[in-house]
Amino acid sequence: MKNRNSKFAMLFILALSFMSFTVLKDKTVKIKESSITWKGYKVGGEHTGTIDLKSGSLIFNGSKLTGGNFVIDMTSINTTDLSGDYKGKLDGHLKSNDFFGVEEFPTATLNITSATGKAGVYNVKADITIKGITEAIDFVMNVNDDTASANLKIDRTKHNITYQSPSLLETLKDKAIYDDFDLNVTLKF
Gene3D superfamilies, alphabetically (predicted)? Predict the structure, then answer.
């Protein structure tokens, strides 16, 4: 019995040592600077703009990306291809309930659930939450030195943003706003 207890104690100590070693290998780095640009498409054109990152971090195991968490400030959505009254109207409309509903949903989040790859190029799986609705997405992230970049394509209808969606209303014709929009992200850590 004594020998059995000794083996159990040894296994327990080894398990604790392994868990401690694993935790020490993971390193979380905070995002110091970011640039997020968006592009939305409509019949006959597009609009572009910026949005601010409220907070964010990437998680590494050694030099390998393993995770990350980000909070986007939806109240900062800004149109850059318009000016004057047109800019003000579009900015206001994007913040309204027709689109991102920033009064009720002032932030969106993205949580990296896995990252696989090598040489600084990762296939990332993540959960993105916009307007309280979470959707799994995949994208490629490049990590070089202290910079990470990614281009994401997001289907707004999966987050209950259906204003003038051609997939829901066939009769829109020249007023349609396409479902997918792009986010181009650069992060410095």
Answer: Lipid/polyisoprenoid-binding, YceI-like
Measured between alpha carbons, how far is residue 120 from residues 1, 140, 142, 160 in Å?
52, 10, 6, 34
- Residue 29 CA to residue 44 CA, distance in Å, equals 42
Using DSSP, state whether 82 is helix, strand or coil: coil
Q: Radius of gyration over alpha carbons of the chain, in Å?
A: 22
Integer angstrom CA distances of residue 171 from 40, 111, 154, 167, 168:
20, 37, 23, 10, 9
7 C-beta neighbours (distance < 10 Å), count: 10
Backbone φ, ψ for residue 49 (5° rounding): -175, -165
pLDDT at 67 over 80: yes
pTM: 0.83
In this predicted model, what pLDDT tens digit does every residue of 143-166 receive, in sequence order? 999 999 999 999 999 999 999 888
